[in-house]
Design goal:
The complex is a heterodimer of chains A (about 190) and B (about 100). In chain A, about 60% of the residues lie in helices and about 0% in strands. Chain A contains eight helices and two strands. Chain B has about 100 residues and is mainly alpha-helical. Chain B is built from five helices and no strands. The termini of chain B are far apart. Chain B has helices spanning about 5-10, 10-15, 20-30, 35-55, 65-75. The longest helix of chain B is centred in the middle third of the chain and has 22 residues, at about 35-55. Chain B has a domain at about 5-55: Arc Repressor Mutant, subunit A (Orthogonal Bundle), CATH 1.10.10. The chains are: A mainly alpha (about 190), B mainly alpha (about 100).
């Protein structure tokens, strides 16, 4: 017999199902809300309101979209309403990551990229496991880039779906995604070369 | 043929399979002859994987007792509905306030 799907368990009032979805999604919700409202404390409030709305409206969920996407859409609407009401929107960052000094004028590599051997999540870099280093670098990114990474890399949404949730264009989502990833690649490369 | 700089600029689109078929073929042709760009694409791909794994290890938040109480009370009040079209939920519509 196949296990009962999560939405059905939630509708049946299974507390472990609520814990499961909360644990899996809460940090993504806070990141997305912070990106939209530009304020971490507001983001936490909006996230709490979102969970209450999810509880209240579980009966209206019909399964047309994945449950996680349905919840993210509720959050997005609430965060945008709140940002408009508070008159706050975080401008898209101007944080640039280029490829300075890596290429000659003819477009060839000036400094050859190294081969990352045995870079695994558990490898120790600067006294921490690689995944801890990456987590810290993600926390240092602008909130819009953190949100894009969460939705694209963790929730496996398309750039179009990310754009819908975050109120950006798909092209802008890709720019934010590439900048975020490139910033982290550069940090890892510097650590791997030590 | 694409320069190394052009391959580098398209590396993220390449690992996401989010570029045109033509551009993808041009990059593959370049990679067949360029170890440096192959290393760079490998770094980009590993970075993508590490980010996903790191996000998956975020500190797990716990449901507050108040929120869990709201969940259990709500589902007691509104048990799972009849899935047939005639089985109305009687719940209010989502609002954004």
């Amino acid at each position: 017999m196949s296990p009962t799907p999560l939405p059905a368990r939630l509708k049946n009032g299974d507390p472990s199902a609520f814990e499961e979805i909360f644990t899996a999604l809460n940090s993504t919700l806070i990141r997305v809300a912070a990106s939209i409202t530009g304020n971490r404390a507001t983001a936490e409030e909006v996230t709490q309101e979102t969970w209450l709305a999810v509880i209240e409206n579980l009966g209206t969920y019909r399964g047309d979209a994945p449950l996680r996407h349905w919840i993210l859409r509720i959050l997005s609407n609430k965060a945008r309403t709140r940002a408009t009401r508070d008159g706050k929107t975080e401008p898209l960052d101007t944080f640039q990551v280029g490829f300075p000094d890596q290429f000659t004028e003819s477009g060839d590599w000036a400094v050859a990229p190294s081969l990352w051997e045995e870079i695994t999540p558990e490898r120790i870099l600067s006294g921490r496991q690689t995944w801890e280093l990456v987590q810290e670098e993600i926390r240092n990114l602008p909130s819009s880039q953190q949100a894009v990474l969460s939705l694209f890399e963790h929730e496996k949404m398309s750039s179009g779906e990310c754009a819908e949730i975050l109120g950006m264009t798909p092209a802008n989502v890709r720019v934010q995604l590439h900048r975020a990833r490139e910033k982290i690649r550069q940090v890892l490369d510097a650590e791997a070369s030590k | 043929m694409l320069s190394c700089r052009e391959v580098c600029e398209n590396a993220h689109g390449y690992v996401d399979a989010d570029i045109s078929v033509w551009k993808r073929l041009q990059i593959r042709l370049h990679l067949a002859m360029c170890r440096n760009c192959t290393n760079f694409i490998d770094q980009t791909r590993k970075t993508k994987v590490l980010i996903a794994k790191s996000l998956g290890r975020d500190e797990k938040a716990e449901v507050s007792p108040d929120l869990m109480a709201a969940f259990t009370q709500s589902t007691k009040k509104n048990p799972a509905e009849d899935p047939t079209p005639s089985g109305g939920s009687g719940r209010r519509k989502l609002d954004d306030t």
